[in-house]
Amino acid sequence: MPDWNKSKLSRIYFYQKVFLTIANSTDYVVMNGRIPQELQDHWLDRKWEFGLPISLINKNLPFIDSEAELIEFGKVHSLVAGEFNLDENIWRSSAFLNSKVEQAKFSKLISYGDEIIKIAYSPEDIIEFAESTKCPIIIKEALSNSGSGHVVWQSAKENYKLNRIPYPAVMEVYQVNRILDFGILIHVSQGQIELLDIAEMLIGKDFNYKGSFYYPSEKPQWYSKVKKLYNEIYPFAESWQKFIESENYEGPISIDGFLSEDGRQRLRSEINFRYTMGRIGYEIMLKRKLSKDWLQNIPKQTGIVILHSNQKIDPRPDYELILSFNENDPWKIVYIEYRDQICRSIH
């Protein structure tokens, strides 16, 4: 079962706030904290429709229709007869699907892709793998997100890092010359896997997630190449259907991959069976498409951007701030749109 420490609770509360913005005005959004009035005022000022917050303290929710659909950014609860409970079976299923170790096992079983991804059970496995590849190695914790559990090992001088890793973990060759990180957004419903969109992802050198950009009016050149990777070269739906069906999973999936300068391409660096920030940005874009100003002037580029310390959005004045998600620092996490030109620059 999950260990809800302070950091995780803070992240959960953030996702709950974001879920309010993608919910309809008739949707209930369960919260474990109060929504700051200044944030609500900002959304109202932007004429943004959002959901109805209800407190997590009220675990018994008899006023909610028994037929209501429960949607979570990561499935761990059940809602039965108005009672909202942490469900051990759902949690274990979600942990299995999102485990990078389990994904690596299945990938090997079906010989999926040509990428070298192995499982490390000890520091010795990593050192042996590094000696055989003669390359820097990236190690990923089985359950981690947004790059928080990633470690790069380059030489024996960094052996101290290996003792901090919870094993088993996944290890692969670290690609330093990536020219594009992308996220493929798909959705599973009634056994059908649907491709929604492909986002350009912004990833920092320390693997921190910086944002996702979408191109609603005209797709960039790389888009068709990545789509071909997904549909033909490494057909995801055909190859991973059994893995998905093994847990009767329905809902969002995000596949992260990259293209590199030396021609290497990887469709699957990891798979997320949950609502990612990329999927949330996509859902916001869908709501924006219903607005009059969107139809009058469709943006060339839209995106959700997280600014870390000492960063700023490109200062050109052609972007419009649509929404902020942080009441303490309005520019910390934003959804923006570019109408006149495309921007990739975040400093």
Summary tags:
four-stranded antiparallel sheet; eight-stranded antiparallel sheet; 29% strand; 347 residues; single chain; alpha+beta; Dna Ligase, domain 1; D-amino Acid Aminotransferase, Chain A, domain 1
Provide a descriptive summary of the structure in words.
The chain has three domains: 81 residues, no CATH class; 73 residues, Dna Ligase, domain 1 (2-Layer Sandwich); 161 residues, ATP-grasp fold, B domain (D-amino Acid Aminotransferase, Chain A, domain 1), CATH 3.30.470. 29% of the residues lie in helices and 29% in strands. It is built from ten helices and 16 strands. The strands form four sheets. It has an eight-stranded antiparallel beta sheet with strand order 13-12-9-10-11-14-16-15. α1 packs parallel to α9.
